[in-house]
Design a protein that fits this description.
It is a single chain. The chain is mainly α. The chain has two domains: 94 residues, DNA polymerase, domain 1; 173 residues, hpI Integrase, Chain A. It contains 13 helices and two strands. The protein has a two-stranded antiparallel sheet. Helix 10 packs parallel to helix 13. It is globular. The N and C termini lie far apart (72 Å).
C-alpha cells in the first residue's frame, strides 16, 4: 500500500473524516504528486520546502484562490505530520511554509423574519414527504446539526426533550429540543414507512432507506429558495442561522460552542461578527445615552 493510501485509510478508520474531506485530501495529494513528479512512495523523502513553495506559486498563477491554496496546504501539513509520526520521512518541509493570507468570510444566514413558523408551514404538504421535509428543515434550524449528523441520527437517540448526536471525531453531544419540534417528530413517525433502514435511522426516503447527502442538500435548497433572499442556500446555512439567532437572542459563546460541537471557542467566535449589528441595535434602544435624538 502506498504512503498516500495508508494515510487515507488512517483518516477513514482512525480519524473518521467525512467522505467529502477524504475525497478532497485524495485530490490534493494526487495534484501535488503530479506536480512534484513523485513516482514512488520513497520519493516523498526528497520533497523540500522549495518544492512546496513552487507548488504554491503554480497554484496561484493558475487562478486558484488564497483560500483554496491554504486548504491544499493544510492537507499537505497533515500528510507530512503523519509521515513523520510513522517514520516514513526524516524532515518535515511544511515547517518552513506559510500559506497566502486568507480573509475570514462571515457566515451567511437566513433572517429571522424569513424563517418564521407561518412562512415555513405553508411550504409543506401533510403527507409523509411533506412532514419529513419540514422536519429536516426544522431540525437543521432548531438544533444546528450538520448534514452528516442529520443523516446518521438514530431513532433511539431522540427523546421528547433532546437528541443525541454523533459529531466529528466520534464526539457525542446532547442537544435540547422544544415541544413543537418533538410534535413534528411524532407526526413524522406515524407516517414513516417500513423499510430496511426505518427501524434504525430517524430520516428515511419513501422506500424506507436511509437518506444521502445530495438528496438532503437538494431538498433544503429548494425550500430555502422559496423563503430567503440569502445568496447561499444549503443545510450549512441553516447551521449558521441557528448559531446567529441564538447569539442574537442572548445565548453565551460557551453554550453555543457545546451545542455546535466545536472543539474550541475560535470556531464559534466567528458568529459574534454577525451578532454585533443586533447588539448595536439593542444598545441604541436600551441605553439612555445610546438613543438617537
Amino acid at each position: 500500500m502506498s504512503y498516500k493510501d495508508s494515510f487515507i485509510h488512517y483518516l477513514q478508520v482512525e480519524k473518521r473524516y467525512s467522505k467529502h474531506t477524504i475525497v478532497a485530501y485524495e485530490e490534493d495529494l494526487d495534484q501535488f504528486t503530479v506536480f512534484a513528479e513523485l513516482s514512488k512512495s520513497s520519493d516523498w523523502k526528497e520533497v523540500n520546502h522549495q518544492l512546496v513553495r513552487a507548488w504554491i506559486v503554480n497554484l496561484l498563477e493558475s487562478g486558484q484562490s488564497n483560500r483554496t491554496v491554504s486548504r491544499k496546504l493544510s492537507c499537505l501539513r497533515s500528510f507530512f505530520k503523519w509521515l513523520m509520526a510513522n517514520g516514513k520521512v526524516e524532515q518535515n518541509p511544511m515547517l518552513r511554509i506559510r500559506g497566502p493570507k486568507v480573509e475570514k468570510r462571515l457566515p451567511q444566514f437566513v433572517k429571522q423574519t424569513e424563517i418564521e413558523d407561518e412562512r415555513i408551514e405553508r411550504l409543506f404538504s401533510s403527507d409523509f414527504e411533506g412532514v419529513r421535509d419540514r422536519l429536516m428543515l426544522e431540525m437543521f434550524y432548531q438544533t444546528g446539526i450538520r448534514l452528516s449528523e442529520l443523516i446518521e441520527l438514530k431513532s433511539k437517540d431522540v427523546t421528547s426533550s433532546s437528541i443525541k448526536v454523533l459529531g466529528k471525531r466520534n464526539k457525542e453531544r446532547i442537544i435540547p429540543i422544544g415541544s413543537d419540534l418533538f410534535e413534528i417528530i411524532r407526526s413524522y413517525e406515524k407516517l414513516k414507512p417500513a423499510g430496511p433502514d426505518s427501524s434504525l435511522y430517524l430520516f428515511v426516503k419513501k422506500d424506507g432507506r436511509k437518506l444521502y447527502s445530495e438528496f438532503v442538500y437538494r431538498k433544503v435548497k429548494t425550500y430555502l429558495n422559496s423563503i430567503t433572499v440569502s445568496e447561499k442556500k444549503s443545510p450549512h446555512i441553516l447551521r449558521h442561522t441557528f448559531a446567529t439567532h441564538m447569539l442574537n437572542n442572548g445565548a453565551g459563546l460557551e453554550t453555543l460552542k457545546e451545542l455546535l460541537g466545536h472543539a474550541g471557542l475560535a470556531a464559534t467566535q466567528v458568529y459574534t461578527h454577525n451578532s454585533f449589528a443586533q447588539i448595536n441595535t439593542i444598545y441604541t434602544h436600551a441605553h439612555p445615552r445610546g438613543k438617537k435624538k
